[in-house]
Automatic annotation (TrEMBL), chain A:
Keywords: Periplasm, Signal. InterPro entries: SBP (IPR006059), TAT_signal (IPR006311). The lineage of its organism: Bacteria, Pseudomonadati, Pseudomonadota, Alphaproteobacteria, Hyphomicrobiales. This is Extracellular solute-binding protein. Gene3D superfamilies: Periplasmic binding protein-like II. Coiled coil: none annotated.
UniProtKB/TrEMBL annotation, chain B:
The keyword Transmembrane helix applies. The keyword Membrane applies. This is ABC transporter permease. Belongs to the binding-protein-dependent transport system permease family. CysTW subfamily. It is found in: Cell membrane. It comes from Jiella sonneratiae. Gene3D superfamilies: MetI-like. The chain crosses the membrane at residues 36-57, 87-113, 125-147, 167-187, 220-243, 274-295.
Length: 381, 304
């Protein structure tokens, strides 16, 4: 019979404490461990094995990535004290410059090391690129990579590209299309788009009358929607014929369906709209180093790693969604894209669609508009 | 080495002796369990207290216990706020799920206890097995079944029949909830029915009781604790359901858990999300307490 006494228990506890010290450890040990450890908070794509595994191998590092699908949640994670956890944050363009840097959630990048990368990007990103810089233009706050227009998607077998572009956001005011469209579950973008359907510029302070129009429009648009869901649901509903179009959508959401053999599904940017004549909205991801008191030195290495033409191409076609990347301005990167890949990301119309779009910005009265929109959403039942 | 000997060996000064004596007054089991109990208290109570703290914080703030206001609750109870609709849908669909599952599960539970014999284990496994697959995957599977040109539509088209337009409706949300929570009703109900002594049923039959009378006077009352536990468990889980309404229902209705999620994410209004969560806890907790008060757990666990 085996006896298990207090002495054995103490030995096991001691061994356990040592083992725990190895992984969680004392401050000194933790600091040493960060040399080979990095954590990224990002949109899907950067968390894929295709992107991360070669970097893990190259650096012999443990790289953890968590993907989320909205910017406010990611920023709240930093605000709630997770700045100590994350090394990189990847969000849409206005947040670094307008929110995270003023709130000291991110730290600037060394300009001498990173500014030259912008020279090789597509022309619109040439330095000093506004969204990568601090408000006063003195600091470089992040690196750009994926981008794209993001307004709505139609099945061009049901509604022609010409009609969709010319009609613009009024498609969603058309009673004959009620029950034939979906709404992507992307509430911050839906706020922009309900304003646009109402014929109002979203990115300004709104009068009470404009907010009332917004509320009425939200009620109408949500009541007329057949389905609200994620990207997979929207693409599935489009392909199966459950819906003919959906709002909030663009290259980011529809490219997987196009790559899967459904080129008739197309992201549309309206020809005109209420934002100084422009009707579309585009997004540009900016990846910044978090203001982590113990920032991993691998964070800046990773930002350099994803500038490599091959890695940039992998990022563009990482699992989940397929998108153009700023590094396509580099011939060595552009040549890696096949004809089918260029077609999936609608390269043929990308430049004109970006020109017809304003860049994603922060809505000054977003909270009020979101509350009105959520009230409208509940009333659709 | 005894506890007393360890206590004596470990105390070298006079000051620490009373502490040792005080510890000796606590049963060994409690002393051994205290680290785990402390860990559980921290793991369970700390998040709960944080949520409650946030519920009383200024709207749209990210610091807890820094401010105190009832504004979040006032906002929720404001007639202009339609969040009551989410509460109503969640509670109504949860109630309907419980009612439907009572009817669906009773014959199956009866079969498992009285009819299927040696096949009972296999039938039980068939009901348990789906739980090993992620709920979302199972629900997406149902979407493919019901969608246009999907499995059902394709089968009916081959028979020359039109496919039903059921996806993205409140009815399909209810179907998803009934499907998801079926095992949570079935197994407590089976346990309840298994505790009805067969001798008692036979005796009643010998004395001339009809099948309905046996069911009403013997089976149902004796199985009631299991049935109530199943109903309670199903209701609590269903009231917090969100995936069915999102995936199958296409958000044709907004559930309260979805509203809580929106408050914590897109709205960046953690205090509102916390206030909604506290209200949901109160509603579900109140109902649970009311049901638990009617249960005799000792009897269910076979101690009497």
């Amino acid at each position: 019979m085996t006896h298990f006494d207090r002495r054995d228990a103490l030995k096991i506890l001691g061994a356990g404490a040592l083992a725990a010290g190895g992984s969680f450890g004392l401050p000194g040990a933790a600091f040493a461990a960060r040399e080979k450890e990095m954590n990224i908070l990002c949109w899907e794509g950067y968390n894929s094995a295709q992107v991360l595994d070669p970097f893990r191998e190259k650096e012999g590092a443990t790289v953890k990535a968590e993907s989320l699908t909205n910017d406010p949640t990611m920023i709240n994670r930093l605000r709630s004290g997770e700045s100590k956890v994350w090394d990189l944050i990847n969000v849409n363009n206005p947040w670094a410059r307008k929110v995270m840097y003023p709130e000291k959630l991110i730290k600037p990048l060394p300009k001498d090391e990173f500014m030259p990368f912008f020279d090789k990007m597509l022309e619109q990103f040439h330095p000093p690129y506004r969204w990568a810089m601090s408000d006063d233009g003195s600091e470089l706050l992040g690196m750009t990579q994926r981008f794209g227009p993001y307004s709505y998607v139609v099945n061009t077998d049901k509604i022609s590209r010409k009609t969709a572009e010319e009609t613009g956001w009024d498609l969603f005011n058309d009673d004959s299309l009620a029950g034939k469209y979906g709404i992507l579950e992307s509430d911050d973008w839906n706020v922009f788009n309900i304003f646009l359907v109402a014929g109002i510029d979203p990115f300004k302070e709104h009068t009470p009358e404009e907010m009332q129009t917004f509320s009425d429009t939200a009620l109408k648009v949500f009541k007329g929607a057949k389905v609200i869901g994620d990207i997979a649901t929207m693409n599935q509903a489009l392909v199966s014929g459950e819906i003919d179009l959906h709002l909030t959508g663009g290259t980011y959401s529809v490219s997987p369906a196009r790559a899967d053999g459904f080129p008739e599904m197309r992201a549309i940017t309206p020809l005109k709209g209420p934002m100084n004549g422009k009707g579309g909205v585009s997004w540009i991801e900016v990846t910044s180093t978090v203001n982590n008191p113990d920032l991993s030195p691998l964070a800046t290495e990773f930002l350099k790693y994803v500038q490599d033409p091959k890695v940039a191409h992998t990022v563009a076609f990482a699992e989940g969604t397929f998108n153009p990347v700023a590094q396509m301005g580099n011939k060595a990167c552009f040549e890696l894209f096949t004809k089918d890949e260029l077609d999936a990301i609608q390269w043929d119309s990308l430049e004109e669609e970006m020109a017809r779009s304003v860049e994603y910005d922060i809505v000054p009265d977003y909270e009020k508009a979101l509350d009105l929109m959520n009230n409208a959403k509940r009333q659709r039942s | 080495m005894s506890d007393a000997a360890l206590g004596a060996a470990g105390t070298t000064t006079g000051e620490s002796r009373p502490k040792g004596r005080a510890l000796r007054g606590i049963p060994a089991g409690v002393r051994c369990a205290s680290p785990v109990a402390l860990f559980m208290a921290l793991g369970f109570l700390a998040p709960l207290l944080t949520v409650i703290g946030f519920a009383f914080a200024e709207p749209r703030t990210f610091t807890v216990f820094d401010s105190f206001t009832l504004e979040n609750f006032a906002e929720i109870f404001d007639p202009a706020d339609t969040v009551w609709m989410s509460f109503a849908w969640s509670l109504a669909l949860a109630l309907l799920t419980v009612v439907l599952l009572l009817f669906v599960c009773y014959p199956i539970a009866y079969g498992l206890v009285r009819v299927f014999g040696r096949w009972s284990s296999l039938v039980s496994i068939a009901f348990v097995f789906p739980l090993f697959i992620s709920e979302n995957v199972r629900l997406y599977g149902w979407t493919l079944f019901f969608i246009n040109h999907g499995v059902l539509d394709g089968l009916l088209a081959q028979l020359g029949l039109p496919g039903p337009d059921v996806l993205f409706t409140p009815a399909i949300t209810l179907f998803g909830m009934v499907y998801t929570y079926l095992p949570f009703m079935l197994f407590p109900m089976t346990l309840g029915l298994s505790m009805v002594p067969a001798d008692l049923v036979e005796a009643a039959r010998d004395f001339g009781a009809s099948r309905t009378m046996i069911w009403r006077e013997i089976e149902l009352p004796l199985a009631m604790p299991g049935i109530l536990i199943g109903a309670l468990l199903t209701f609590v889980l269903a009231a917090g359901a969100v995936a069915e309404a999102k995936i199958l229902g296409g958000q044709s209705v907004i559930m309260i858990s979805h509203d809580i999620e929106i408050a914590f994410t897109y709205s960046q209004n953690w205090p509102r999300g916390a206030a909604l969560a506290v209200l949901l806890m109160l509603v579900i907790g109140g109902l649970s307490m009311a049901v638990m008060a009617r249960l005799d757990l000792d009897r269910i666990l076979g101690r009497r």
